Amino acid sequence: MTSDYRVQQMSTPKPDVLPLEIWGATDKGREREGNEDAIYPHSGLESSFEPNPQRLAQKGRLLIVADGVGGARAGSQASQWAIRVAIEEYYDRYGPDMGGDLSAAIEKANASLYQYLQSTGTQEAGSTMAAAVVQGDELYVANVGDSRVYLLRDRQITQLTHDHTLTQQKVDRGIIRPEQAGMDPDHNILTRSMGAEPTVRVDVFPPLQLAPDDVILLCSDGLTDMLDDGEIARLVDRNPPKRAARRLIDAANKRGGADNISVVIARAGGERLAGEGLLADMERIPSRPKTILAVCLVLAFLVVVAAWGWTAYGRRQATPTPTVAPTATATVEIAPTSTEPVVAPTTLQPTDTMSPGKPTSTLAPTLTSTNTPVPPTPTHTPTATWTPSPTPKPSGGGDKPKPTATPRR
Q: How far, in Å, are 113, 193, 236, 310 from residue 182 at the CA level?
């Protein structure tokens, strides 16, 4: 069962601010018994984690996808715990360094998750995390694990994050070619995850400047294991975030849906807002009430037009009753004669006419982007401190743990 929602950011405008339309959706897939993924923003987490408009204006819009490891229940608890701490920690920071604050929030979430797992005796559980912040027209990205962040611009897709898997290590060292990564048996074995150790290294990437119509996509490996980058770009291209999210999940499920599938999509508006003010979330408006409102407006317009037409028709058909002057009779006393009536009829002719006006419409110009995104590089080059020994991928419906450097599924 897919759950999704929309948050449309509007504002009292300010320079260099791109309005965002954001949709997130998560699905358990076709083979898993439960859903270990967690996303933010998410309707189920809004009441607890949603910051106020002032914090949104200062810190920007935070987007997260986390993929839990360790089995259905343990993985779900781990991903939700990590997201909750990361959100609270990020929005509690007041510094101007968005990338540094994002990294610190993920590190704090890792330490908290590690303590939680130790206290509950579920040491083999953990989570990945891909996070992005949109502040004004700048994008900040960080990640741990193999959940990804993409940027789509001018029908081109660029992966902004770096996977922390054995397969990616092989690619980095030249053992296998990048095009062989999808078929490598170690592509689901993590070399870095949250909750496995008290501390974790977070990859933080240089900020990118966004352009109108840019699309930011965060996703779990349940999507990227089923679809390649080109297919993802085609499904997202020129679609609103809600439709794009549903198309991605449907396509992954048609390919088998072997894992939980989660996406968060943010599309930058086609126009820059002008003026000053604070970013604030617009009330979520479901599609059904909007459709009903539109139908009511159309019906009201038709009623007005029909009433006007009926009135005009009646006025054209009406003809006043002619009035006839009374007959006048005169008698001459000298020579009697017959009387002759004099009739003076009067007829009124309708003279009123009406000519309705015609509505006019204008189309807003479409802005296009001219700059091409350059894939960023991490502020530090992640290296594995040890090379784990791959073990066979466990079978079953997702109840097996997938700790760091062990099979995720």
A: 30, 20, 21, 69
| Residue 135 CB neighbour total at 10 angstroms | 20
Q: State the Cα–Cα distance between residues 115 and 118, nearest whole angstrom.
A: 5
- What global pTM score does this model have? 0.65
**Which residue type sits at 164?**
H
- Please, which residues have CB within 8 angstroms of residue 37's CB and are 6 or more apart in sequence? 26, 65, 66, 67, 68, 79, 220, 222, 260, 261, 262
Q: Could you give all domains of the chain from N- to C-terminal order, each with its CATH number? A: 3-285 (3.60.40.10)
Pairwise CA distance, residues 245 & 226, whole Å = 14
- Residue 302 CB neighbours (<10 A): 10
Span between the terminal Cα atoms of the chain, in Å: 21
What is the distance, to the nearest Å, from the Cα of residue 150 to the centroid of all Cα atoms in its chain? Answer: 14
How many angstroms from the chain centroid is the CA of residue 310?
A: 47
Return per-residue pLDDT of the chain as tens, 409 residues.
444 433 333 333 343 578 999 999 999 999 998 999 999 997 545 546 788 889 999 999 999 999 999 877 899 999 999 999 999 999 999 888 999 999 999 999 999 999 999 999 887 899 999 999 999 999 999 999 999 999 999 999 999 999 999 999 999 999 999 999 989 999 889 999 999 999 999 999 999 999 999 999 999 999 999 999 999 999 999 999 999 999 999 999 999 999 999 999 999 985 443 332 223 333 333 334 445 555 557 677 777 777 766 666 565 555 444 444 443 433 334 344 444 443 434 333 433 433 333 333 333 333 333 344 444 444 444 433 333 334 333 333 444 344 445 455 4
